[in-house]
Amino acid sequence: MKDAEILSTFLELDPAAHKAAEAAPLVFDACHIGVVLRAVLFVQLVMGVGAMFAAASVPNWLIHMALLTGVALPATLVWLIVACGLKNLLARLSAQGQLLAGLALGAGAGLSGCAVLSLAGMLEQAPWLASASAGMLLAAALVLALQMRAKGRAPAATAARLSELQSRIRPHFLFNTLNSAIALVRAEPAKAESLLEDLSDLFRHALVDQGDAVTLEQEVTLARRYLAIEQVRFGARLQLEWALDPRAGQARLPPLLLQPLVENAVRHGVEPSETGAMVRVSTQCRGSVVVIKVTNTVPAGSGAPGHGVALDNARDRLRLLHDVQGRFQSGLVDGVFQVRMEVPL
Protein backbone atom coordinates (compact mmCIF):
# COMPACT_ATOMS: atom_id res chain seq x y z
CA MET A 1 0.00 0.00 0.00
CA LYS A 2 1.36 3.43 -0.92
CA ASP A 3 1.58 6.32 1.54
CA ALA A 4 -0.92 8.27 -0.55
CA GLU A 5 -3.46 5.49 -0.13
CA ILE A 6 -3.05 5.50 3.64
CA LEU A 7 -3.28 9.26 3.84
CA SER A 8 -6.38 9.26 1.63
CA THR A 9 -8.24 7.75 4.57
CA PHE A 10 -7.81 10.98 6.50
CA LEU A 11 -8.76 13.12 3.52
CA GLU A 12 -12.21 11.57 3.68
CA LEU A 13 -12.87 13.65 6.77
CA ASP A 14 -14.92 16.53 5.46
CA PRO A 15 -15.06 19.45 7.93
CA ALA A 16 -18.36 20.55 6.40
CA ALA A 17 -19.81 17.15 7.19
CA HIS A 18 -18.79 17.48 10.81
CA LYS A 19 -20.34 20.94 11.03
CA ALA A 20 -23.53 19.60 9.52
CA ALA A 21 -23.57 16.77 12.04
CA GLU A 22 -23.05 19.17 14.92
CA ALA A 23 -25.87 21.39 13.64
CA ALA A 24 -28.27 18.47 13.17
CA PRO A 25 -31.67 19.04 14.77
CA LEU A 26 -32.64 17.27 17.95
CA VAL A 27 -34.17 13.85 17.56
CA PHE A 28 -37.86 13.97 18.45
CA ASP A 29 -38.26 10.30 19.30
CA ALA A 30 -41.32 8.88 21.08
CA CYS A 31 -41.03 5.35 19.66
CA HIS A 32 -39.03 3.71 22.45
CA ILE A 33 -40.95 1.50 24.87
CA GLY A 34 -39.15 3.13 27.77
CA VAL A 35 -40.25 6.58 26.63
CA VAL A 36 -43.86 5.40 26.28
CA LEU A 37 -43.89 3.87 29.77
CA ARG A 38 -42.36 6.96 31.38
CA ALA A 39 -44.74 9.28 29.54
CA VAL A 40 -47.82 7.31 30.63
CA LEU A 41 -46.56 7.12 34.22
CA PHE A 42 -45.79 10.85 34.28
CA VAL A 43 -49.26 11.79 32.99
CA GLN A 44 -50.94 9.41 35.45
CA LEU A 45 -49.02 10.95 38.36
CA VAL A 46 -50.06 14.43 37.28
CA MET A 47 -53.69 13.29 37.01
CA GLY A 48 -53.48 11.67 40.44
CA VAL A 49 -52.20 14.87 42.05
CA GLY A 50 -54.81 16.92 40.19
CA ALA A 51 -57.61 14.65 41.39
CA MET A 52 -56.61 15.33 45.02
CA PHE A 53 -57.73 18.96 44.71
CA ALA A 54 -61.31 17.94 43.97
CA ALA A 55 -61.53 14.87 46.22
CA ALA A 56 -62.98 14.93 49.74
CA SER A 57 -62.18 11.30 50.48
CA VAL A 58 -60.25 8.36 49.11
CA PRO A 59 -63.30 6.83 47.34
CA ASN A 60 -64.08 10.23 45.86
CA TRP A 61 -60.42 10.53 44.74
CA LEU A 62 -60.63 7.16 43.04
CA ILE A 63 -63.74 8.28 41.14
CA HIS A 64 -62.06 11.49 39.99
CA MET A 65 -58.90 9.56 39.14
CA ALA A 66 -60.86 7.12 37.00
CA LEU A 67 -62.55 9.99 35.18
CA LEU A 68 -59.28 11.83 34.53
CA THR A 69 -57.59 8.61 33.44
CA GLY A 70 -60.37 8.07 30.92
CA VAL A 71 -59.38 11.39 29.36
CA ALA A 72 -55.62 11.41 29.88
CA LEU A 73 -54.63 7.85 28.98
CA PRO A 74 -56.18 7.72 25.48
CA ALA A 75 -54.99 11.26 24.80
CA THR A 76 -51.42 10.42 25.88
CA LEU A 77 -51.36 7.31 23.71
CA VAL A 78 -52.68 9.27 20.73
CA TRP A 79 -49.96 11.90 21.24
CA LEU A 80 -47.23 9.25 21.46
CA ILE A 81 -48.46 7.33 18.39
CA VAL A 82 -48.69 10.46 16.25
CA ALA A 83 -45.33 11.76 17.50
CA CYS A 84 -43.71 8.40 16.73
CA GLY A 85 -45.26 8.28 13.25
CA LEU A 86 -44.07 11.80 12.46
CA LYS A 87 -40.63 11.34 14.04
CA ASN A 88 -38.64 11.83 10.84
CA LEU A 89 -40.66 14.86 9.83
CA LEU A 90 -40.45 16.49 13.26
CA ALA A 91 -36.70 15.82 13.46
CA ARG A 92 -36.19 18.29 10.58
CA LEU A 93 -37.59 21.14 12.69
CA SER A 94 -35.61 23.35 15.02
CA ALA A 95 -35.89 22.85 18.78
CA GLN A 96 -38.48 25.64 18.92
CA GLY A 97 -40.36 24.14 15.99
CA GLN A 98 -40.45 20.75 17.68
CA LEU A 99 -41.81 22.33 20.84
CA LEU A 100 -44.56 24.13 18.94
CA ALA A 101 -45.46 20.95 17.06
CA GLY A 102 -45.58 19.06 20.34
CA LEU A 103 -47.87 21.71 21.85
CA ALA A 104 -50.19 21.49 18.86
CA LEU A 105 -50.30 17.71 19.11
CA GLY A 106 -50.86 17.98 22.86
CA ALA A 107 -53.83 20.33 22.37
CA GLY A 108 -55.28 17.94 19.79
CA ALA A 109 -54.75 14.95 22.09
CA GLY A 110 -56.44 16.76 24.98
CA LEU A 111 -59.41 17.69 22.84
CA SER A 112 -59.72 14.12 21.56
CA GLY A 113 -59.80 12.75 25.11
CA CYS A 114 -62.43 15.26 26.09
CA ALA A 115 -64.46 14.38 23.00
CA VAL A 116 -64.45 10.68 23.94
CA LEU A 117 -65.93 11.39 27.37
CA SER A 118 -68.38 13.90 25.92
CA LEU A 119 -69.67 11.42 23.34
CA ALA A 120 -69.95 8.78 26.06
CA GLY A 121 -72.24 11.14 28.02
CA MET A 122 -69.94 11.24 31.04
CA LEU A 123 -69.64 15.02 31.06
CA GLU A 124 -72.45 17.51 31.61
CA GLN A 125 -70.39 20.28 30.09
CA ALA A 126 -67.23 19.42 28.17
CA PRO A 127 -64.17 21.42 29.36
CA TRP A 128 -62.72 21.94 25.89
CA LEU A 129 -60.39 24.81 26.77
CA ALA A 130 -59.14 23.17 29.95
CA SER A 131 -58.49 19.88 28.13
CA ALA A 132 -56.56 21.61 25.35
CA SER A 133 -54.53 23.65 27.86
CA ALA A 134 -53.73 20.59 29.98
CA GLY A 135 -52.73 18.67 26.86
CA MET A 136 -50.39 21.47 25.79
CA LEU A 137 -48.81 21.72 29.24
CA LEU A 138 -48.17 17.99 29.51
CA ALA A 139 -46.93 17.86 25.91
CA ALA A 140 -44.46 20.66 26.62
CA ALA A 141 -42.99 18.67 29.50
CA LEU A 142 -42.73 15.54 27.34
CA VAL A 143 -41.09 17.36 24.43
CA LEU A 144 -38.51 18.97 26.69
CA ALA A 145 -37.75 15.58 28.25
CA LEU A 146 -37.34 14.03 24.79
CA GLN A 147 -35.03 16.82 23.69
CA MET A 148 -32.91 16.45 26.83
CA ARG A 149 -32.71 12.72 26.12
CA ALA A 150 -31.55 13.41 22.56
CA LYS A 151 -28.96 15.90 23.81
CA GLY A 152 -27.62 13.24 26.14
CA ARG A 153 -26.61 11.09 23.18
CA ALA A 154 -24.22 13.62 21.65
CA PRO A 155 -21.72 13.91 24.54
CA ALA A 156 -21.61 10.12 24.95
CA ALA A 157 -20.99 9.54 21.25
CA THR A 158 -18.36 12.30 21.10
CA ALA A 159 -16.57 10.96 24.17
CA ALA A 160 -16.56 7.49 22.67
CA ARG A 161 -15.05 8.71 19.38
CA LEU A 162 -12.35 10.66 21.22
CA SER A 163 -11.64 7.68 23.45
CA GLU A 164 -11.32 5.37 20.46
CA LEU A 165 -9.12 7.87 18.60
CA GLN A 166 -6.81 8.05 21.60
CA SER A 167 -6.77 4.26 21.76
CA ARG A 168 -5.98 3.92 18.07
CA ILE A 169 -3.10 6.39 18.10
CA ARG A 170 -1.51 5.45 21.42
CA PRO A 171 2.21 4.85 20.76
CA HIS A 172 2.16 1.30 22.09
CA PHE A 173 -0.47 0.13 19.60
CA LEU A 174 0.99 2.00 16.64
CA PHE A 175 4.56 0.92 17.44
CA ASN A 176 3.64 -2.76 17.55
CA THR A 177 1.43 -2.61 14.47
CA LEU A 178 3.99 -0.79 12.32
CA ASN A 179 6.78 -3.04 13.56
CA SER A 180 4.70 -6.04 12.55
CA ALA A 181 4.16 -4.52 9.11
CA ILE A 182 7.88 -3.78 8.66
CA ALA A 183 8.75 -7.35 9.58
CA LEU A 184 6.33 -8.64 6.95
CA VAL A 185 7.21 -6.26 4.11
CA ARG A 186 9.92 -8.43 2.56
CA ALA A 187 8.86 -11.90 3.64
CA GLU A 188 5.09 -11.53 3.14
CA PRO A 189 4.30 -8.23 1.37
CA ALA A 190 0.65 -9.15 0.76
CA LYS A 191 0.16 -9.78 4.49
CA ALA A 192 1.88 -6.49 5.34
CA GLU A 193 -0.43 -4.63 2.96
CA SER A 194 -3.47 -6.30 4.53
CA LEU A 195 -2.23 -5.29 7.98
CA LEU A 196 -1.88 -1.62 6.96
CA GLU A 197 -5.32 -1.69 5.34
CA ASP A 198 -6.82 -2.94 8.61
CA LEU A 199 -5.01 -0.17 10.50
CA SER A 200 -6.25 2.43 8.01
CA ASP A 201 -9.82 1.19 8.36
CA LEU A 202 -9.62 1.46 12.14
CA PHE A 203 -8.53 5.09 11.84
CA ARG A 204 -11.34 5.86 9.44
CA HIS A 205 -14.02 4.42 11.69
CA ALA A 206 -12.60 6.21 14.74
CA LEU A 207 -12.60 9.60 13.00
CA VAL A 208 -15.67 9.62 10.77
CA ASP A 209 -19.05 10.52 12.28
CA GLN A 210 -21.30 7.54 11.59
CA GLY A 211 -24.48 8.84 13.19
CA ASP A 212 -26.41 7.43 16.13
CA ALA A 213 -26.30 3.77 15.13
CA VAL A 214 -24.72 1.21 12.82
CA THR A 215 -25.52 -2.43 12.15
CA LEU A 216 -24.09 -5.28 14.18
CA GLU A 217 -22.62 -6.61 10.93
CA GLN A 218 -20.57 -3.41 10.53
CA GLU A 219 -19.37 -3.60 14.12
CA VAL A 220 -18.31 -7.23 13.65
CA THR A 221 -16.36 -6.29 10.50
CA LEU A 222 -14.47 -3.59 12.43
CA ALA A 223 -13.77 -5.98 15.31
CA ARG A 224 -12.42 -8.53 12.84
CA ARG A 225 -9.99 -5.95 11.45
CA TYR A 226 -8.75 -5.06 14.92
CA LEU A 227 -8.29 -8.70 15.88
CA ALA A 228 -6.54 -9.41 12.56
CA ILE A 229 -3.93 -6.80 13.52
CA GLU A 230 -3.48 -8.25 16.98
CA GLN A 231 -3.33 -11.78 15.55
CA VAL A 232 -0.18 -10.81 13.65
CA ARG A 233 1.33 -9.46 16.84
CA PHE A 234 0.41 -12.28 19.24
CA GLY A 235 0.30 -15.20 16.83
CA ALA A 236 -0.81 -18.45 18.48
CA ARG A 237 -1.24 -16.70 21.85
CA LEU A 238 -4.42 -15.10 20.54
CA GLN A 239 -6.97 -17.84 20.03
CA LEU A 240 -10.10 -16.59 18.27
CA GLU A 241 -13.52 -18.14 18.03
CA TRP A 242 -16.47 -16.65 16.16
CA ALA A 243 -20.05 -17.90 16.48
CA LEU A 244 -22.14 -15.48 14.45
CA ASP A 245 -25.84 -15.77 13.65
CA PRO A 246 -26.44 -14.24 10.19
CA ARG A 247 -29.98 -13.28 11.24
CA ALA A 248 -28.58 -10.94 13.90
CA GLY A 249 -26.51 -8.80 11.52
CA GLN A 250 -29.10 -6.04 11.10
CA ALA A 251 -29.45 -5.26 14.81
CA ARG A 252 -28.54 -1.66 15.60
CA LEU A 253 -25.69 -0.64 17.90
CA PRO A 254 -24.00 2.64 18.77
CA PRO A 255 -20.93 3.02 16.53
CA LEU A 256 -17.60 1.84 17.95
CA LEU A 257 -19.25 -0.25 20.66
CA LEU A 258 -18.01 -3.77 19.92
CA GLN A 259 -14.37 -3.00 19.07
CA PRO A 260 -13.43 -1.56 22.51
CA LEU A 261 -14.90 -4.69 24.11
CA VAL A 262 -12.73 -7.06 22.05
CA GLU A 263 -9.77 -4.74 22.68
CA ASN A 264 -10.39 -5.12 26.41
CA ALA A 265 -10.47 -8.88 25.94
CA VAL A 266 -7.07 -8.80 24.24
CA ARG A 267 -5.51 -6.32 26.65
CA HIS A 268 -6.62 -8.07 29.84
CA GLY A 269 -6.74 -11.64 28.60
CA VAL A 270 -3.96 -12.16 26.05
CA GLU A 271 -1.32 -9.52 26.91
CA PRO A 272 -0.68 -10.49 30.54
CA SER A 273 -0.64 -14.25 29.82
CA GLU A 274 2.48 -16.04 28.58
CA THR A 275 0.38 -18.83 27.13
CA GLY A 276 -2.24 -16.51 25.64
CA ALA A 277 -6.01 -16.61 25.93
CA MET A 278 -9.18 -17.51 24.10
CA VAL A 279 -11.32 -14.64 22.82
CA ARG A 280 -14.80 -15.58 21.68
CA VAL A 281 -17.40 -13.37 20.00
CA SER A 282 -20.90 -14.73 19.51
CA THR A 283 -24.22 -13.37 18.30
CA GLN A 284 -27.57 -15.10 18.48
CA CYS A 285 -31.03 -14.11 17.34
CA ARG A 286 -33.74 -15.07 19.82
CA GLY A 287 -37.05 -13.96 18.40
CA SER A 288 -37.03 -10.16 18.37
CA VAL A 289 -33.92 -9.95 20.57
CA VAL A 290 -30.26 -10.30 19.61
CA VAL A 291 -27.80 -11.55 22.24
CA ILE A 292 -24.15 -10.48 21.80
CA LYS A 293 -21.36 -11.98 23.91
CA VAL A 294 -17.65 -11.13 24.11
CA THR A 295 -15.79 -13.67 26.25
CA ASN A 296 -12.13 -14.06 27.15
CA THR A 297 -10.15 -16.24 29.50
CA VAL A 298 -8.21 -14.42 32.22
CA PRO A 299 -4.79 -15.44 33.61
CA ALA A 300 -4.88 -17.11 37.01
CA GLY A 301 -4.78 -14.62 39.85
CA SER A 302 -6.12 -11.72 37.78
CA GLY A 303 -9.15 -9.82 38.95
CA ALA A 304 -11.77 -7.94 36.98
CA PRO A 305 -10.16 -6.17 33.98
CA GLY A 306 -9.07 -2.53 34.28
CA HIS A 307 -11.13 0.24 35.80
CA GLY A 308 -14.28 -0.52 33.82
CA VAL A 309 -14.23 2.75 31.85
CA ALA A 310 -14.83 1.07 28.50
CA LEU A 311 -17.58 -1.09 30.03
CA ASP A 312 -19.32 1.91 31.60
CA ASN A 313 -19.12 3.82 28.32
CA ALA A 314 -20.59 0.91 26.38
CA ARG A 315 -23.37 0.43 28.94
CA ASP A 316 -24.34 4.12 28.88
CA ARG A 317 -24.33 4.37 25.08
CA LEU A 318 -26.40 1.21 24.73
CA ARG A 319 -28.96 2.58 27.19
CA LEU A 320 -29.14 5.89 25.33
CA LEU A 321 -29.86 4.13 22.04
CA HIS A 322 -32.24 1.37 23.15
CA ASP A 323 -33.39 2.51 26.60
CA VAL A 324 -35.10 -0.36 28.49
CA GLN A 325 -34.91 -2.60 25.42
CA GLY A 326 -31.12 -2.78 25.69
CA ARG A 327 -29.37 -4.82 28.40
CA PHE A 328 -25.70 -4.89 29.36
CA GLN A 329 -24.07 -7.29 31.81
CA SER A 330 -20.46 -8.19 32.58
CA GLY A 331 -18.74 -10.43 35.06
CA LEU A 332 -15.79 -12.70 35.86
CA VAL A 333 -16.63 -16.32 36.69
CA ASP A 334 -14.13 -19.19 37.04
CA GLY A 335 -11.39 -17.42 35.10
CA VAL A 336 -13.65 -16.36 32.25
CA PHE A 337 -14.72 -12.74 31.75
CA GLN A 338 -17.86 -12.14 29.70
CA VAL A 339 -19.74 -9.12 28.42
CA ARG A 340 -23.34 -9.91 27.46
CA MET A 341 -25.60 -7.49 25.61
CA GLU A 342 -29.20 -7.73 24.45
CA VAL A 343 -30.60 -5.40 21.77
CA PRO A 344 -33.87 -5.39 19.82
CA LEU A 345 -33.82 -6.60 16.24
Main β sheet profile = 5 strands, mixed
The chain-level mean pLDDT equals: 76
Q: How much is the radius of gyration in Å?
A: 26 Å
Order of helices and strands: HHHHHHHHHEHEEHEEHEE
Q: Provide the structure class.
A: alpha+beta
Question: How would you characterize this protein structure?
Answer:
The chain is of the alpha+beta class. Among the domains are: 33-151, no CATH class; 234-345, Heat Shock Protein 90 (2-Layer Sandwich), CATH 3.30.565.10. It has 12 helices and 7 strands. The strands form 2 sheets. A 5-stranded mixed β-sheet has the order 2-4-5-7-6. Strands 1-3 form a two-stranded antiparallel sheet. Helix 6 (95-119) runs antiparallel to helix 7 and helix 7 runs antiparallel to helix 9. The protein is elongated. The two termini are 38 Å apart. Residues 1-27 have low confidence and may be disordered.
Attribute tags:
single chain, 345 residues, alpha+beta, Heat Shock Protein 90, 12 helices, 7 strands, 13% strand, elongated, disordered N terminus
Layout of strands and helices, then pairs:
Blueprint: H1 3-11, H2 15-22, H3 33-54, H4 58-85, H5 87-90, H6 95-119, H7 128-169, H8 171-187, H9 189-207, E1 214-215, H10 216-234, E2 238-243, E3 252-253, H11 258-270, E4 277-286, E5 289-297, H12 309-322, E6 327-333, E7 336-344
Parallel strand pairs: 2-4
Antiparallel strand pairs: 1-3, 4-5, 5-7, 6-7
Briefly summarize what is shown:
The chain has helices spanning 3-11, 15-22, 33-54, 58-85, 87-90, 95-119, 128-169, 171-187, 189-207, 216-234, 258-270, 309-322, and strands at 214-215, 238-243, 252-253, 277-286, 289-297, 327-333, 336-344. The chain is an alpha+beta fold and 345 residues long.
